[in-house]
Amino acid sequence: MYLRPVSEIILFFFVFLSIALVYSSVGFGGGSSYLAVLALSGLPFGEVRLTAMACNIAVVLGNTTLFRRSDWWDGRKYLPFVAAGMPMAFLGALIPLREQYFFILLGGTLLLAALLLWFQPGAKQEPPEKAAGKNRTIDWISGGSIGLLSGMVGIGGGIFLSPLLFFLRWDKAKHIAATASLYILANSVAGLAGQLVSGVSNFDASRLFILIAAVTLGGQIGARSSLRWFSPLWVRRITALLVCWAGSEVLWKYL
Description:
Elements: H1 6-24, H2 31-41, H3 45-70, H4 75-94, H5 99-119, H6 136-153, H7 158-167, H8 173-198, H9 205-224, H10 232-254
């Protein structure tokens, strides 16, 4: 463990607050961008995954509470994703990865996420209510496979699940956002549990507390207000560009 200048901690605080604000506005937790920032900052990779998962939980916990109050969930529709994703995220977090392999996997994951976000169909292509969740086999397979990758890398998986559901015309935009948010929360909790079971060294609790406070504040602002401030399309496009840049930087550094 090593201490960082106060100015750098303050910078981290506002960067994470901004990421949480933007991502929460479209129902995500921001794990991919937290990972990118932490990976490029030189922190131990065990702490990188743990911090990203914990921040994810802090953000999407507020989102899921709001979605629950809006009654946008249907247990028959989201259950396959959560039931398949949680155990696979836990197992993924238990898989031992060398530092270089982890960051190569992370970089590739970020680039793939950027492509999915950029080409995600818009809300105008959403299907009628009766079309929702009609293929349970795809729901189980996609939920489990994304969950495994999420646990290995340290994200919640919503950045993959949400574009996939739009491509499949799975349901209306608000129901996809609610399902993705719950999926992120479930995978993040399971992945964090897996990381704690496997053991984490070189961990700075004070830094984690500061970053959790930042994303909690940003997440609440974004979930409650920023949908009225920003176009969801532009949020996705800007996020895709930032994630693509970060993934390229990570791969350039570790390949």
